[in-house]
Each structure stands twice: as C-alpha cells, then as structure tokens.
Design goal:
Number of domains: 2
Radius of gyration: 22 Å
Oligomer: single chain
Structural class: alpha+beta
Strand order of the largest sheet: 2-1-3
Distance between the termini: 74 Å
Largest sheet: 3 strands, antiparallel
Shape: globular
Helix content: 10-25%
Length: 172
Amino acid sequence: MTDYFITGANARWQVLWISTKGGKKRIIEQDFEHDLMGAISLYAKAKAAGKPFATLRCANVGFPPPDRLMPYIERKRVKGRIVETQVTPMVTLNMRGVMWCPYCMQLRKPMYQSGFRVEGIRVPEEGVHCPLCGVSHRNGHVRRWNPALATPTKRARRSTSNKNVRRTRKSR
C-alpha cells in the first residue's frame, strides 16, 4: 500500500525554495500535481544551482522519519539482569527544538507564530509551524511523528491585576 503513495500515483508534489530577489525573502512554490519525476528533476536543478532551502515536498501525504529516528528497544545489562527500555529519539530532538516535517521530509527548527498566510488569507492559528511549508503542530502526521510537539507549551503570560478574584464570603 505504501509503495502506491511513494511512486507518486496519488501524491501531489511541490518543489519549494527561498528567493531573495529585490532584497526580500519569499518562498517560491512550483506545483507538479502527480508528476514525481518532474518534481525530482526540478529539485535536483535547484539544489545544483544552490537555491537556499530547496525542498521536495509532498502536499497531501505525510512520510515517517528515517529508521534512525524511529523508536526502538534497547537492551542493557544492569546488575546481572537484562533490562529492556524503549528509546524514542524524536522526543529528544523535539525537546532540543527540532521537529520532523512529514511533508518536507526533513528535520526543521519549528517557528512559534501567531498565525500564517495561505493563498493571501491570514489564518490566526497560534502555535508551532514548519518554517518552510507552514504545516502546524495540530496536523495528524506531525503529531504522530513528533510526540513532544503534540502539546506544545505556550509562552507564559503574567497577570497584571487581580480583578477576576472571586470572593466566597462577605465580611460583616
């Protein structure tokens, strides 16, 4: 079943890179629909030309991280006994501020944003996003492969007043 998705028969492919023309940075997206070979050829050309952050991205299918980042069971000898522990490398990376983007298929440093733009429309979604493709931590594939990002911590806000303190008993 996964071979069907990997061949590009059902997946929509894009090539992304950052353009710095005119002194402004912006993300360029080139859509290829279901043409994986065309997307790979443009991706190779963009990498060879030295385009910053050239990325081959799947728009509708999320891919798992490589095997070296998947959870595994480690066996250790402790006091003459063999102890099995489950090691999840993605939790360690998530705690260091790195996430696996299942659509870009790369490790990225996520950005905390109050929202982002999609096709010119501002979406006020607060949270952690991939800096290149904009996928949120609320996406199912992102939550599945980044266990520590499933519930990101919000920035702490200080309370400046005690207006909302509720009194339970009046003094007479």
